[in-house]
Design a protein that fits this description.
By secondary structure, the chain is an alpha+beta fold. It has a 6-stranded mixed sheet, with helices on one face. It is 30% helix and 34% strand. A hairpin with a 2-residue loop joins strand 1 and strand 2. The longest helix has 22 residues.
C-alpha cells in the first residue's frame, strides 16, 4: 500500500514537471518579463520594446496572421490612434542568433519623437 502511494506521488511530480516544461516555451532571456497584455489567447510579455534585449515577446500566436495584428493592437494601446497620435514610418525584419524581430517604426505626435518598437516574433515567424 505504501509503495503504491509513493509511486502515485512520484508519477504526480513527474507529470507536473513535464506539464510546466511543455507549457513554457518562453526563451530563458524573457523569464523575468511580466505579462503586459493579452489578445484572446495570445500573450505579450515585456520589456519596454525599445531594443532587441527588451523586445516585446509575443507568446501563443500560431501564425503571422495571429501575431501581426497583436503588434498593431499594442501600438494603439501604448501610443494611441494611428495618424492622430503617432505616424507609422515603416516596418523592418531583423534577426539576432535564432531570434527574429519585427521592428515597427513610428513618430509620436505632437512631439515628433522617433520610436522603434521591437517585437520578438520567433515563435510564429514564417508560419501561415
Amino acid at each position: 500500500m505504501r509503495k503504491n502511494i509513493n509511486r502515485l506521488a512520484f508519477c504526480f511530480i513527474v507529470i507536473c514537471i513535464a506539464a510546466c516544461a511543455a507549457s513554457s516555451k518562453m526563451p530563458t532571456a524573457y523569464k523575468a518579463y511580466k505579462l503586459i497584455g493579452t489578445v484572446g489567447k495570445i500573450e505579450l510579455w515585456g520589456g519596454d520594446g525599445l531594443s532587441m534585449p527588451t523586445a516585446i515577446y509575443i507568446k501563443n500566436a500560431k501564425s503571422s496572421m495571429d501575431g501581426i495584428p497583436v503588434e498593431y493592437a499594442y501600438l494603439r494601446q501604448k501610443y494611441g490612434v494611428r495618424d492622430e497620435e503617432y505616424l507609422f514610418n515603416g516596418q523592418a525584419l531583423m534577426s539576432e542568433g535564432k531570434r527574429s524581430y519585427d521592428v515597427l517604426k513610428i513618430t509620436t505626435l505632437p512631439d515628433s519623437t522617433k520610436v522603434n518598437v521591437y517585437f520578438d516574433i520567433s515563435d510564429f515567424f514564417g508560419k501561415f
